[in-house]
Amino acid sequence: MPRTLGRILIYTALILWTIIALFPIFWTFSTTFKVAKDVQLGHIIPWVDFKPSWLGLRAIGLSPDTIFTESTPRAEFIKRFWNSIQASIGASILALILGSMAAYGLSRYSYHWKIWKNRDISFFFLSQLILPPVVLAMPFLVLYKELALLDSMIGLILIYTLSVLPIVIWIMKDQFDTIPQELEQAALVDGCSIWGAFFRIILPIALPGMVAAFILSVILCWNEYFFAALLTSSYAKTLPVMVASQTGSQGISWWSMAALSSAAILPLIIIGIFLERYIVKGLTTGSVK
Amino acid sequence: MASVEIVDVRKSYGDQAVIHGVSIAISNGEFVALVGPSGCGKSTLLRMIAGLEEITGGDVKIGDKVVNGLPPKDRDIAMVFQNYALYPHKTVAENMGFALKLRKTPKAEIDQRVKRAAEILDLMPYLNRYPRQLSGGQRQRVAMGRAIVRAPQVFLFDEPLSNLDAKLRVQMRAEIKELHQRLKTTTVYVTHDQVEAMTMADRIVVLHDGIVEQIGTPLELYDRPNNLFVAGFIGSPAMNMFKGTIRAGAHPHFETADGTRLPLASAPAGSDGLAAIYGIRPEHLTLGGDLKPTVTVIEPTGSETQVIAKLAGEKIIGVFRERVNVKPGESVAMSPDLSLVHLFDAKTGNRIS
Ligand SMILES: Nc1ncnc2c1ncn2[C@@H]1O[C@H](COP(=O)(O)OP(=O)(O)OP(=O)(O)O)[C@@H](O)[C@H]1O
Ligand SMILES: [Mg+2]
Predict the structure, then answer these.
(1) Ligand 1 centroid vs B6 CA: distance in angstroms?
(2) Alpha-carbon distance A186 to nearest alpha carbon in chain B (angstroms)
């Protein structure tokens, strides 16, 4: 029975891993419904260990008894949520437009400036990922202050664009490299201009990669905390910063923090479930068979 | 339709020259094949006609108009690529109609022209499929369809058949030729397969290392190759060649280094003692005669027999309609058809006539 045994082992491992992967999410969701005592005593299983309460959701005005009333925390939450959406979607769109064009250029034309060629340019883009963001904290703070970009949506979008651009360029260059040059050339002969060939032929073929790059950069921007905390205060603050600032007079309000975190990861979970296909396809396969 | 004229065209990549001044005049409606070994610059030349490659020097004219600076879309040419380059996200019909759509042709007319091309190419059942759902041969046809739908001035083909299996290749060869007879569009066809060039083209341009070795009809090239390269390249199996010296006199003949005598009808004037190459095609040898090469391999194909033998230290191949009853190791008598012997100068490689 070595086959059955093998299966049992594989499934055990898979189940174990699933539990490990899902536990933090479960903990976050369940903590939303705990009171201080349950958190401190480490109660885990609802209804058995502890009695669920609406405390967490009430703190952000989303519990059944507060949802139809005026609520300052809820307004604040919606504002931060909206900021996060703006920052991550805006930066991702910008990065995708700029990144696709840069990647296309790197994939199709040979540039050189003195001793530097395409490969060096590609490496230059990627090398930005090597530097820890902390190193850039002071320069950016000073720069943003000079440019009056502190605590502005535009400022946040710009820095997010900058930070996801290398990854977008990387993914898109990979995509374009798998598309044979003859395809654009056929389009040129058929009557397209260079831009026409790019938009009508190349972009549609590279779409899976673009979707993957877009989703990935949305996720990265959505979760970003460091620059948001550094460069925003009251106006452009995003959800992660709001999550981190849930400390009241009696210490950390775990329940409201958990409620906010749940709301913050929910969109990502939805993206993950519905668009996973595209991410995998875009990242693994060349688009032209 | 239009004529195509290439005047002293040159191409360099950086400081590396790959085309060294090529001139070809192609008249209206002609089917010209560019042949040559891999890397000789066939594709580069074709792509310069298409406008996909910058021209370093010289002029390309399509219908009397110099097109050097024109982008491909303004040259009114259609091109079929080696890997077909079908748009994977468009159906067969959309692939074929794309060029017309870009020209803002009315939808009804696009449909009608695509349909007509599909009928010619037997593609009717596949119009709504995507390229990935087609076989190699069908994809090849779609690529041709995309070219003919437009009724361009010039067709350019870059080794369109090299991805097909042998049988399909022969079939498509005939189809392309038939298509040309029907449409009479000026065609430039690149191939490294001399049989393809011989069977399809009105005229053949033999390229070698970025220069033209010879331009002529298939039979001109076969009958009177200008130099050793063309002699060796055109014809299959290749021409037999022997190094040696021309001996004029009462009994003109050709003497190889080991003293073997090869017969000549006559020695060209003033060629006595000239170091030369003696060439005779395998199919111009007949059984019986003075030459006694030693057989190494016999390859009967039914209709003919190919005899591979050794003479004067060189390989000699003979192709005979008769059946040959000798075994490897034995010698077989054969003789060249004297009127079909070729002589080339050993130094320059050029034909001596
Ligand atoms: N982008 C390039 N940069 C530098 N050299 C190139 C470039 N493209 C082609 N070459 C060189 O130009 C020469 C001609 O290439 P080309 O593709 O025209 O050959 P070809 O005759 O079509 O050969 P094949 O039968 O293999 O297709 C080759 O020696 C090749 O190395
Ligand atoms: Mg080629």
Answers:
(1) 19
(2) 7
Q: Which ligand is nearest to the CA of B53?
A: 1
A287 chain-B contacts, CB cut-off 8 A: 88
Window from A64-68, A225-229, B232-236 with minimum mean pLDDT = A64-68
What homologous superfamily is domain B4-231 in, according to CATH?
Answer: P-loop containing nucleotide triphosphate hydrolases (3.40.50.300)
User: DSSP assignment, residue A11?
Assistant: H
What gap in Å lies between CA A261 and CA A226, rounded to an integer?
A: 16
pTM of the model: 0.81
Query: What residues of chain A lie within 8 A of the CB of B104, using their CB?
Result: none
Mean pLDDT of A179-202: 92
Cis peptide before B282 (omega within 30 of 0): no
Fold of B237-345: OB fold (Dihydrolipoamide Acetyltransferase, E2P) (2.40.50)
Contact between B87 and A183 using a beta-carbon 8 Å cutoff: yes
Residue A98 has pLDDT above 80, yes or no: yes
- Residues in chain A closer than 8 A to B82 (CB atoms): 182
Are B333 and B289 in contact by the 8 Å Cβ rule? The answer is yes
Distance CA B226, CA B212 (A): 11
- Residue A1's pLDDT is what? 65
Question: What are the pocket residues of ligand 1 if the criterion is a CB atom closer than 6 Å to any ligand atom?
Answer: B 13, 18, 36, 38-44, 192
* Alpha-carbon dihedral sign for residues A103, A107, A109, A111: positive
User: Rounded to an integer, what distance in angstroms lies between the CA atom of residue B230 and that of residue B341?
Assistant: 15
Mean pLDDT of chain A: 87
**Nearest Cα residue to atom 30 of ligand 1:** B39
Spatial CB neighbours of A95, under 8 Å, sequence gap ≥ 6: A160, A161, A164, A165, A168, A217
Q: Based on the domain organization, do A160 and A127 belong to the same domain? A: yes
- Are A155 and A228 within one domain? yes
State how far the Cα of A258 lies from the Cα of A27, in Å rounded to an integer. 9
**Residue A10, in any domain of the structure:** no
Query: Which segments of chain B have a pLDDT < 70?
Result: none
- B302 near B319, Cβ under 8 Å? no
Q: Which domain holds residue A33?
A: 19-53
Instruction: Please state the ipTM of this predicted complex.
Output: 0.84
CB atoms B50 and A183 under 8 Å = no
Q: Is A203 on the interface with B (CB under 8 A)?
A: no
The preferred substitution site among B42, B82, B208 for testing ligand 1, maximizing ligand atoms within 8 Å of CB, is: B42
A125 and A44, same domain (yes or no):
no
CA–CA separation, A32 and A22 (whole Å):
16
A226 and A262: one domain? Answer: yes
Look at residue A243 and tell me if it is in a domain: yes
- The answer on A38 and A89 residing in a single domain is no
Spans of all domains in chain B: 4-231, 237-345
- Determine phi and psi for B193, rounding to 5 degrees: -100, 110
Q: Tokens in use for B160?
A: 């369109």
Q: How many domains does the structure of chain A reveal?
A: 2
Residue B42 CA to ligand 2 center (angstroms) comes to 6
Q: Is the residue at A8 inside a domain?
A: no
> What's residue A289's pLDDT?
38
Q: How far does the CA of residue A285 sit from the closest CA of chain B (Å)?
A: 14
The answer to whether B298 contacts chain A (CB < 8 Å) is no
Residues A140 and A276 in one domain: yes
Asked if B88 is an interface residue toward chain A (Cβ–Cβ < 8 A), one would say yes
Determine which of A188, A189, A205 to mutate to test the interface with B (most B C-beta atoms within 10 Å).
Answer: A189
Higher pLDDT: A62 or A4? It is A4
B52 chain-A contacts, CB cut-off 8 A = 185, 188-189
